[in-house]
Amino acid sequence: MAIFTDPIREYAHFGPGDAEWLHLLVGDWQMVADLAFADLALWFPLDDGGYVALAHVRPSTSHTVFHTDFVGERIRADLLPLVDKAWMSQKMERSGDTNWTTEMAMRVEAVPMVRNGRTLAVVTTHMDLSSSRMPSRLELTYRQCAHDLLRMGTLGLWPDFATPTGSRRGAPRVGDGLIRLDVEGVIQYASPNGVSAFRRLGDVETLEGRSLAEIVTSLLTDRRMVDETLPLVVTGRMPWRTEIESRGVSLSLRAIPLRDEKDRFGALVLCRDVSELRRREMELVSKDATIREIHHRVKNNLQTVAALLRMQSRRMVSDEAKQGLEQAMRRVGTIALVHETLSQGLSQSVDFDELIARQFRLSAEVASPAHVVRTERAGSFGELPSDFATPLALVINELVTNAVEHGLAERTGTVWLLANRRKGSDGDEILNVTVADDGIGLPYENHKEGLGLQIVRTLVTSELDGTIEWAPREGGGTAVSIELGLHDNRS
């Protein structure tokens, strides 16, 4: 549900917080639409005396009376006098006659939203009257609650800036369960879903006529874990949210104090059984912790393998065998570095720039123990999925090692690592990676032979589904270019 905000931004008469207050209203008025069994529309004045629709919400407790979206459109002529009257009087105004359309009869009310003595906008409620059945006690109570909230809007008492706006899953809705309290916190009415929610917590008695605070207190099994906001929520004193847990059932509660010009006269408490949601969240947390632990153990095991290879290389008499073990050790260390990065976060993606910054310098230093090699990086890799990061890190490690050992050939020089992400013609992202040096240039001995470059070609073409090519670098040396498609199935 979007709000049409251009007229608000252009309206010069708004004071501090006025626009935010209207946005807070639209963010929470689904509750009012559900309570009123009515569509709500928000109207804002135009310079020529008309009004424009800023937002529209449909009830989830009843069918809509507007099947087309009219946000951004001007107000109808038959509705204009009622909205004008509400704007000027700063009181709720009801149409004197039933509004008949081709399909149904509607009752329309106009509610001015007044803050600091100024009307900021007008909310109209549109309720279908074509049903001839007698309304139930639930419907009558819901409509009274909606009326009380809208009247608070005319007094600038609702919406309340103290209302939490966090996005935690499981926010209670009207259909999940509603309880109405009097000023003392005694339950005047509890919807069937509200009663069922408390029965699952362990309360088997009727709720009406009892103190909600006493009910909740009797159900708590571990009072050391009680949220400090709980007393103020269950007494309806503050517009906050809290949760209670008993017998393996988690109940989310949200309070909306009801006030008039003088004082608080009651409260609404929305309740929702969120046991299944919390159970799934705990499963996800447990899975995340397990995955991180697996990555940590894999990293430890790989470091052990690298240490064993290092010990074995020290025992080698042949320089060729010793060099082969050292290369294997570096490759294992590169894979271990990726798993170490994954073990430190919740996501299965890797900040590749942070990872490769260390690996790039390390690869050049290890490959050039007898001479100085400078390293320079440019561009950004961004976030890469782990199954992409591991082979790419290995490829870069091999290319840097190859550039130092063969391109620079035991000379002082520079190795560059360049990265560039761009959009392809099909909309997928493409990653271009270049490893360059200012060494002897092509062709140098065995530049396309040996185990290292065989690993590179295999990883690029098979694991990364990319292309690779060697070319002379402008200014001398060699540049190896890799192009990889970051397909959606890897993101």
Automatic annotation (TrEMBL):
<feature type="domain" description="Histidine kinase">
    <location>
        <begin position="293"/>
        <end position="488"/>
    </location>
</feature>
<protein>
    <recommendedName>
        <fullName>histidine kinase</fullName>
        <ecNumber>2.7.13.3</ecNumber>
    </recommendedName>
</protein>
<dbReference type="Pfam" id="PF12282">
    <property type="entry name" value="GAF_PdtaS"/>
</dbReference>
<keyword id="KW-0418">Kinase</keyword>
<keyword id="KW-0597">Phosphoprotein</keyword>
<dbReference type="Pfam" id="PF08448">
    <property type="entry name" value="PAS_4"/>
</dbReference>
<dbReference type="GO" id="GO:0004673">
    <property type="term" value="F:protein histidine kinase activity"/>
</dbReference>
<dbReference type="InterPro" id="IPR035965">
    <property type="entry name" value="PAS-like_dom_sf"/>
</dbReference>
<keyword id="KW-0547">Nucleotide-binding</keyword>
<dbReference type="InterPro" id="IPR036890">
    <property type="entry name" value="HATPase_C_sf"/>
</dbReference>
<dbReference type="Pfam" id="PF02518">
    <property type="entry name" value="HATPase_c"/>
</dbReference>
<dbReference type="InterPro" id="IPR022066">
    <property type="entry name" value="PdtaS_GAF"/>
</dbReference>
<dbReference type="InterPro" id="IPR038424">
    <property type="entry name" value="H_kinase_PdtaS_GAF_sf"/>
</dbReference>
<dbReference type="Pfam" id="PF07568">
    <property type="entry name" value="HisKA_2"/>
</dbReference>
<dbReference type="InterPro" id="IPR003594">
    <property type="entry name" value="HATPase_dom"/>
</dbReference>
<keyword id="KW-0067">ATP-binding</keyword>
<dbReference type="InterPro" id="IPR005467">
    <property type="entry name" value="His_kinase_dom"/>
</dbReference>
<keyword id="KW-0808">Transferase</keyword>
<dbReference type="InterPro" id="IPR011495">
    <property type="entry name" value="Sig_transdc_His_kin_sub2_dim/P"/>
</dbReference>
<dbReference type="InterPro" id="IPR013656">
    <property type="entry name" value="PAS_4"/>
</dbReference>
